[in-house]
Write a structure and sequence with these properties.
Structural class: alpha+beta
Number of helices: 3
Oligomer: single chain
Largest sheet: 4 strands, antiparallel
Shape: globular
Radius of gyration: 15 Å
Strand content: 15-25%
Order of helices and strands: HHEEHEE
Number of strands: 4
Helix content: 25-40%
């Protein structure tokens, strides 16, 4: 997880978008955690040891910054009911709360990509 967070911070530094760091770090942490926890143990994944089974990418668009994580499982993400005192099950709810939108799509040749789009900060011209 620390590599994913470092990638986010270095990328945002290069794009001069420090205002998004806290939210994007949390979104990426949840996306990657879900991929590792749920996809790598999935029998449908069948990942060879030499492959990189989880991929993280960030892309900058005119109004959004998109974080995308691809994993080998075809099983779509599903927000779980959050129990009041439970310690898990909040990841997709956090992603939904911090992002403008999120979704997933099948990835070729197998697996899926889960993405979240965060609105870019508005630049005020004086």
């Amino acid at each position: 997880m620390s590599r994913a967070r470092r990638f986010v911070l270095l990328t945002l530094e290069g794009w001069v978008l420090p205002a998004l760091a806290a939210d994007l770090e949390l979104v990426v942490t949840e996306l990657v955690t879900n991929a590792v926890r749920h996809a790598l143990g999935c029998p449908e994944s069948a990942v060879e040891e030499t492959e990189y089974p989880v991929w993280l990418g960030l892309s900058l668009h005119s109004r959004h910054l998109v974080a995308a994580v691809t994993d080998p499982s075809p099983v779509p993400p599903r927000p779980r009911p959050v129990e009041d005192l439970g310690t898990g099950g909040r990841g997709m709810h956090l992603i939904e709360a911090l992002s403008d939108s999120w979704s997933w799509e099948p990835a070729a040749p197998r697996g899926k990509t889960v993405w979240a789009a965060l609105l870019l900060p508005t630049v005020r011209v004086a």
